[in-house]
Amino acid sequence: MLDIRALFGSVAGSMTSPLRPDDYWATINPLWSRRRLSGRVEAVFPETPDTSTVVLRPGLGWRGGLAGQHVSVGVSIEGVWHRRTFSLSSPPGRPDGFVAITVKARPDGFVSRHIVHALRPGQTVRLGHPSGRFVLPDELPDRLLFVTAGSGITPVMSMLRHLAEGRMPDVFLAHSARNASEVVFGEELRRMAARFPTLRLYEHHTRPAGVRPAGRLTIAALSAICTDLPERMAWVCGPPGLVDDAESYWRQCSFSERLITERFQPAIRPDGGPGGRVRFVRSGRETTAGAGTPLLAAGEDAGVIMPSGCRMGICHSCLVRLSGGRVRDLRTGDEHDTPGDLIQTCVSVPAGDVDIDL
Amino acid sequence: MAAPTHLSESDIEELGRELDRLRAEVLASRGEDDARYIRRVITAQRGLEAGGRAVMFASLLPPAWLAGTAMLAVAKILENMEIGHNVLHGQWDWMRDPDIHSTTWEWDFSPPAAQWKYSHNYLHHTYTNVLGRDRDLGYSMLRVTPEQPWHPVHLAQPLYNLALAVVFEWGIALYDVQIERAWRREKDLDETLNHLGSALKMVARQARKDYVVFPLLAGPAFLPVLLGNLTANVARNIWAHTVIFCGHFPDGTTTFTEEEIEGESRGEWYLRQLLGSANISGPATLHLLSGNLSHQIEHHLFPDLPSNRYAQLAPRVRALCERFGLPYTTGSLPRQTANVWRRILRLALPGPTRSGTGETSAEPVVRARAA
Q: Looking at beta carbons, which residues of chain A come within 8 Å of B206?
């Protein structure tokens, strides 16, 4: 049987060759592209002095995601596209079809500072599809525990908003911030806790106003407050110290399967080594990179179009084939030198001269 | 090198440093305005192309045919020259936009991007005007400089250069395959056939679009649309041929030998690019439609700087030429074109030695000041 759609597609394709019909749609409105997913900024509002929520209208081809997942966002700064990964803070399936990311401007974060302070409604950003395993299971456990610190609340906020749309299960949320006013989503969390008797909110403030600074939130201390902690399914997201603490606590108690964690920074193992020359075989570019420079950054600086995602070794969007040479994984210190191996460029550095199949 | 001998080695190095400084200045100031420029040109080009083809569908009315054909011709010229040529040079790679990038771009022209990039970006831009190395010096069939040995076939070169202008894109596609090198066993035969295959695929894809798909879609306007597309392609071919031939073949441009470029320094490389290229003077529209190849000198000095910056660089490069007593060859389009054709006619005949060509040698814009 004649496939009308395929025929139509092939005629449309030969009409626009060497471009695709999609390229023409994208020229009229980036949101109409299905191949290069974009989003239009609908609103940017501050959550705290250094954290903003960006509400986006995703373009055609947006497939949605699960509460707690992250998404790659590309912004053009001074004409140059930069891609970073951020957790979604909105629940899936908002009635208006919008999605939101909540971003904290880190002092040395060129891209995050731009998003928080310079992004304006009407501007276009590029989007990836949501991914990540920091999500709720299909069948909700009876009791849940969320432990977050700082902007680590973001993916959990997406989950809580999602849960708040139905029947709130038994949730214990422990959140650490410098003080009450620096709690991202502070007011909404407190309102939510007041509204749902099954939601318990415990705020830990490390620099409370007018009081002596407190120590960091530890799982050991938390277990005294949340006494049924071992029986809860736990999600932990925050700085490396908190996530490391949680992982070792749950490991010691031998119930690691009840813990799901998300990191915003890779746990890096520093090491010397001179780095090396990096050759991108297919594009014919060459550069040098030190032992601390991930291949992703080296490639981007050399003008190579590098696939990228989370930039911390989680999402595997940046996988490329090693053609030759040796690379070192920044997190584990493991070295790989098998040609044809797929390597994560965002956490791999050259250990000597390297050839990359790009 | 066959360069003006009044420059000392340190003069040439100083010239190189000055040009490096110009380059660094542009690199440091690339930004949002440049990105907006190329995006605007791309949007305009796509609008013109879609609009031109749509207008042509009403071709049974002669003014519509004319307007549609003109729009399409301009769209094709922009696509090949200001967009395609310059994107494939990597001028816009710094934006990190995978849709406007030398490694992903394919153009509406016969030579496949990958083959063209090798023959143009590498061979031509590295060995500019070096006899025996720069295949663009006469495109393996024309005698454009007296240093090229004469062959009886050159008697016909005025004719076949005219023909080349009309089918320029196919000529370049075939030329990039480097068939003559396979013939001389310098290039692997399988590789050559492979390259020929992908070039023919490009040619077929374009022919299908312009001479089958769109005419068929036009229904009763089949023939006018086919002729309109043909006219647009030929107009683009003649325009590209004209602009490109004004880049390196007018009087005032210098050729070099392989011995002269041995152990060439960066300063000497710059100097060769400068002496081997010629600009076309004219209004901003001319620069846009020529893909800024009207700033051939600036393009050859800085092939990977965004084309919209060449106009700003031109007066400064010219000032450097004045300071160092170097020629800065430029002229209007009619003048340079007439000049190139005169040369092609003259060199169709055997001889002469350089001194007897009747050519004016490179005229410095300002004579070297007695230092």
A: 17
For residue A305, which residues of chain B lie inside 8 Å, CB to CB? 96, 98, 101, 103-104
Contact A254, A228 (CB under 8 A): no
Cis peptide upstream of residue B352 (ω within 30 degrees of 0): yes
ipTM value greater than 0.90: no
The 10s digit of each residue's pLDDT in A86-104 is 999 999 999 999 999 999 9
Verify that A155 and A58 share a domain, yes or no. Answer: no
Kindly report the number of other CB atoms within 10 A of residue B297's CB atom.
26
Domain span including residue A184: 143-263
Please tell me whether residues A15 and A55 are part of one structural domain: no
Distance (Å, whole) CA B351 – CA B344? 13
Partner A, chain B 36-75, Cβ-Cβ below 8 Å: 36, 42-43, 46-47, 50
Is B103 in contact with A79 (Cβ distance < 8 A)? no
How many H-runs (helices) and E-runs (strands) does chain B carry?
Answer: 17, 2
Q: In what order do the strands lie in the sheet with A51-58?
A: A80-87, A70-77, A124-127, A38-48, A51-58, A99-104
In a domain, A15, yes or no: yes
Indicate the number of domains in chain A: 4
CATH number of the domain to which A338 belongs: 3.10.20.30
Tell me, yes or no, whether A224 and A147 share the same domain. Answer: yes
How far, in Å, CA of B222 to CA of B340, rounded?
Answer: 38
In a domain, A136, yes or no: no
Q: Is B198 helix (H, G, I), strand (E, B) or coil?
A: helix
| Torsion angle, alpha carbons of A35, A37, A40, A42, to 10 | 140
Q: Are A169 and A143 in contact (CB under 8 A)?
A: yes
B208 contacts in chain A (CB < 8 Å): 14, 17
User: What tokens does A82 get?
Assistant: 């930069």
CATH number, domain with residue A201: 3.40.50.80
Phi-psi region of B342 (alpha: psi -120 to 50; beta: other; left: phi over 0): alpha
Average pLDDT on A207-211 reads 85
- Compute the nearest-CA separation of B322 from chain A (Å): 35
Structure tokens at B221: 């306007």
What are A146's two structure tokens? 């969320």
Local structure of B341: helix, strand or coil: helix
What pLDDT is recorded for position B3?
Answer: 52
The token pair that represents B243 in the structure block: 């602009």
Average pLDDT over residues B33-51: 98
- Chain B contact for A11 (CB, 8 A cutoff): yes
* Chain B contacts in chain A segment 60-79 (CB below 8 A): 76, 78-79
Using CA atoms, how far residue A108 sits from A94, A104, A113, B95, in Å, is 33, 11, 8, 21
Supply B223's token pair.
């023939």
CA distances in angstroms from A261 to A104, A266, B102, B110, listed in the order given: 19, 12, 40, 53
Task: Let me know whether A157 and A222 are in one domain.
Answer: yes
